[in-house]
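**Tokenised fold:**
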Amino acid sequence: MEMYHVCRIAVAPLRKEPSDRSEIVSQLLFGDRVLLLEKTEKWCLVRTHHDQYEGWMDHKQLQWVTDLQYHDEQSYRYVTAVNFDNRLVDDAGTVYYLSPGSTLPFYEDGYCYLGESRFEVKTEPFIPNVANFATKVEATAKFFLNSPYLWGGRSFFGIDCSGFVQIVYKLLGLSLRRDASQQVEEGELVDFLASAKMGDLAFFDNEEGKIIHVGMMLSNDKIIHSAGKVRIDPIDNQGIYNLELDRYSHKLRVIKRFV
């Protein structure tokens, strides 16, 4: 079985079961690497390289690469920028529109490559650098404002709460795990809400104490998060206050700092 693959379309759903009707648990973006674990006629079970997440997908959305191409970390550093018009054009002249933070494998001199396929990159990509975190985090997060909420989503066209903070952090050179319940296990504890600063992540729980939501602090009293859409709401020691609903929508559990 050919083990190593890269996503070759703009956005590919990763599903819980091998069926088009199954729940989407995450998404692959163009250039994301996966390890093939199991294969049927149409479906394959994969594990993502960037966050070790498993799910089923249609293998027609993948491009096989060699062991060497898969593990060449230096060749997956360039990503699409924070703008609306990230275009690739393949050798047949077909255009792909990519979400910000999509990886451009083996990028060089205006082209990226998936196996034998070549794509002209029409917009200027960049290598994320965590040294720019403080200066770029606000604009990067706010770019996604009003993106619709989508369970399992990781793109500008639909994004969930943990997918939102994961992609914002990726664009700033930081790697986060996929789900809020996994993300909360990392980072350093911020003792008080008053000490929170821009770029910190706030986590929220339900009645059972399970972490069910995450957002990014813009200050110690404002948060940007994906709930219905990516939005900015006030936050206090109780949690997020939704002005439209005139009530608290999420109960604050803990704040973590990653930078």
Q: What stands out?
A: The chain has a mean pLDDT of 97.
